[in-house]
């Protein structure tokens, strides 16, 4: 039972954490001009400048609608976004006996948080439709490097990519090149290709990269839950 509660807690923490780069991206544009403009506005005591963006009306693609994806969809729904999601199998139950902490949607299943459902073969199609892609996949031989050149090219220009799963799901060179060309509008990651992360990694030169050192699940509540499982 305690192990189950820890699983629930971790899914919630990861889903909450992914909201950070998603919301920040609406106010920090895909280059550093807007950030510089904000600093100038503060110095010049200007109000209402520069113009940002909103999450409302955007399309979010959850790549891997498992336990974390469900919690993320639930938290994104009130923002008025359209949610696309892919998974291996869609059914009116959640795999592994996982039960969400919040009430289900009106007709009783967690799938109702999703506006458009798809499978692996739909990932490029969904990438083309989305402003934001959040990777929540399990890492295995089939998914390693799944965020590659073809996938990134399918994304809308200026789109945001968030990865809260495993670093190896992203093809480093493909992500770097997409940032370099400004096709990828922003990158938010809590997991990296190598950990600990190299502080001199060239990818950090991009102002639209938000990196955190694998701390999505590092909270006082999560540590207390782990302690109960261990002791």
TrEMBL record:
It comes from the Eukaryota. This is Uncharacterized protein.
